[in-house]
Specification:
498 residues; mainly alpha; Growth Hormone, Chain: A; 2 domains; two-stranded parallel ribbon; two-stranded antiparallel ribbon; 17 helices; 4 strands; globular; Oligopeptide:H+ symporter; membrane; transmembrane
């Protein structure tokens, strides 16, 4: 979320003609490796998290509580991306923010590795904070490597960068998941800390190859703003400390005293952000119209992510208790299912890119709205597929692993239809005043979706029951059909955006 800056002079190893990493500036290698190791640590820990929460040798929680904790954690990561971008823009600059974020993430994983429930939740909080700080700023630094938005290498650079994300996400469950499940849970979390440590070390060593502007604070806080921000932060922190001290000493404290406020924030804050932007009187009529259209995409995306992110919680917990996790008689760790999505992304993303180009040449490429609606329908179909292994398990048998692979495959195709389109439409429809904030607004759709899952779990809803799964599947399909049916209205609101 960096503000626009004047063009920096070309220096070796930063934006310019040097091509040292797949034809791109050498700094891309630094950011590629940093993101790969951060995703390795994040996805490895995430693959272990729900399994550890329900395991006899873990926290031994019920499935509903485990799903609530997982959902709150994921929603926080995306919710904190907005203040993370604010820190990069106003306080530390992107480079320093990412360095601090890496250290916080590493400390969080080390805290998770300690065999105590109290430190475990503190570790989750640290990882969420660090991930929010890093997520919002590292992509900004990739953009800084190139000579403006018209640099012909720019799109290719982001493609290489996102390969790092999927490489880390693919390898993590295979390494961290295997060690965590088969050797020791806390050793698995420690491996996640080691991965982030490797990423942080190479980032610090290779940061000299980054663009100079990555060290600049685009819009630093004034002294008055610093004082006001610190005062407000201290007041809110004090209120929280006093409140939870009273709750704790009164003897009525349970985990829900943390989970419920966080899940409510995950729903309320996205709504407040959208309402504030929509009510801004400085926006012209065209911008207001585009924001009205964007709300359709936002709500639909929240429904999508509500179901999609259950691939790491509801599906994982089901696989742990009710699936035959084997291929040709060879049994594999449950956490390995979390490697299915990234390997499919790497395999299918180039295929989709080719298909869209081929259809575009013939004038037959589906519109943004049709792609979005199709992604929603597919994530609904994935949960209709989920009804089959649920029925098999209810009959007293173990469901075959390929049922779960089919579900993840369907969700991945849906993701490739919806997620890139959502990112693109967010940048195209952003009002000029909020250009640097709108990517954070898109992440809030993930927050809202996961927070809704958390609220359902806290309310005691068993998300592994056929009735609930069928209801969620129907909701997604109906939402997708509604977007498609009203595509004319949405298209009109979008104005010149296509």
């Amino acid at each position: 979320m960096a503000s626009s800056l004047t063009k920096d002079s070309v220096t070796p190893g930063t934006p310019g003609t040097d091509k040292t990493f797949f034809g791109h500036p050498r700094g891309l290698a630094t950011l590629f490796m940093t993101e790969m190791w951060e995703r390795f640590s994040y996805y490895g820990m995430r693959a272990l998290l729900p399994l550890y929460l329900v395991a006899d040798g873990g926290l031994n929680l019920n499935a509903a509580t485990a799903t609530a904790i997982y959902s709150v954690y994921v929603s926080l990561v995306y919710l904190l991306a907005m203040p993370g971008g604010w820190f990069g823009d106003r306080v530390w600059g992107p480079r320093k923010t990412v360095a601090v974020a890496g250290a916080v993430i590493m400390l969080g994983h080390l805290t998770l590795a300690l065999p105590a429930s109290g430190t475990f939740y503190a570790g989750l909080g640290l990882v969420a904070i660090g991930s929010g700080l890093l997520k919002a700023n590292i992509s900004t630094m990739v953009g800084h490597l190139y000579d403006g938005p018209d640099d012909p290498r720019r799109d290719g650079g982001f493609t290489v960068f996102y390969m790092g994300i999927n490489l880390g996400a693919f390898a993590a469950p295979l390494v961290i998941g295997t060690i965590g499940e088969n050797v020791n849970w806390h050793l698995g979390f420690a491996l996640a800390a080691l991965g982030m440590a490797l990423g942080l070390v190479q980032f610090l060593l290779g940061s000299r190859h980054l663009a100079d502007r990555s060290s600049v604070v685009p819009k630093p806080l004034s002294d008055a703003e610093k004082s006001s921000t610190l005062r407000k932060a201290a007041i809110w922190a004090g209120v929280a400390v006093v409140f939870y001290a009273i709750v704790g000493f009164s003897g009525v404290y349970t985990l829900n005293w943390i989970l419920v406020p966080l899940t409510l924030l995950g729903v309320i804050i996205p709504v407040m952000v959208l309402v504030n932007i929509k009510r801004d009187k400085e926006l012209d009529r065209a911008e207001q119209s585009k924001m009205s259209a964007y709300i359709w995409f936002f709500v639909a995306a929240a429904v999508f992510w509500m179901i999609y992110d259950q691939g790491g919680s509801t599906l994982s917990i089901f696989a742990d208790s009710s699936a035959d996790n084997s291929v040709l008689g060879w049994e594999f760790p449950v956490s390995w299912y979390q490697s299915v999505n990234p390997v499919l992304i790497m395999a299918l993303a180039p295929v989709f890119a080719w298909i869209w180009l081929a259809l575009n040449r013939r004038g037959k490429e589906p519109s943004t709205i049709v792609k979005f609606a199709s992604g929603l329908v597919l994530v609904g179909v994935s949960f209709f597929l989920f009804l089959a292994p649920l029925s098999i398990a209810e009959g007293g048998q173990k469901a075959a692993a390929m049922w779960l692979v089919a579900i993840y495959f369907t969700q991945t195709v849906g993701e490739l239809l919806l997620s890139p389109v959502g990112l693109s439409v967010t940048t195209k429809m952003a009002p000029a005043k909020y250009a640097s904030q709108m990517m954070g607004v898109w992440f809030l759709a993930v927050t809202a979706g996961d927070a809704t899952t958390g609220l359902l779990s806290i309310a005691g809803v068993d998300l592994n029951k056929t009735g609930i799964v069928a209801m969620e599947a129907t909701l997604a399909v109906v939402a997708g059909v509604a977007v498609w049916m009203y595509r004319g209205k949405v298209k009109g609101l979008m104005g010149s955006v296509r």
